[in-house]
Amino acid sequence: MYSLVLVLFLSYLAGSIPTAIWTGRVLMKDDIRNHGSKNAGATNVFRVMGWKPALFVVLVDMGKGLLAVLVLSGIRIDVIPFGVHVVQILAGVAAILGHIWTIFAGFKGGKGVGTAFGVLVALMPVPALAAIFIWIVLVWLTRIVSVGSIFAALSLPFTLMIQRAMGVQVLTLYFIIAVAMAGLIVFTHRANIGRLLRGEENRFGSQKQKNG
Length: 212
What we know:
This protein is mainly α.
């Protein structure tokens, strides 16, 4: 069990790398959480610093999820009494939790979308691609990032259901993690959902972009 503890600890640390915050400190000499929506995520980086830093943040955040699932989950110093898929999922979840509640920034990180997408690419590439397609379409239509993120997350279990209906073998465990991940993304966007219901959520290109 020492191996499992080590895997989860290292995955959490990897996920905890506060990419947006450190990028802001390097480029602006300030905390990104003092600007724009006050959120430590790629969307706020885009609004405050532009697309190049935002792209860097997205890629690194995705990389954290990929690293946890594909590399860190394979660390062994003793026997882990679980299957490979279980350990990979646990490592991915640890990375996502690290991103949201980062130990390097007072346990106040981003919303977990980028890291969750990296985990999905490693575990479930087809649902991940479907989710990014839905995200792109909805953000393009609505110009609201949170709408794309929420519905992309909610699409995950449905995509798995479609795959199974088409005869693709899908582990029940993947359904569980898809539902849990969708729930977590919705939870981290609860403030956005409130603003959406009030008609106050920001759109790209609008004059007022204070919340995100």
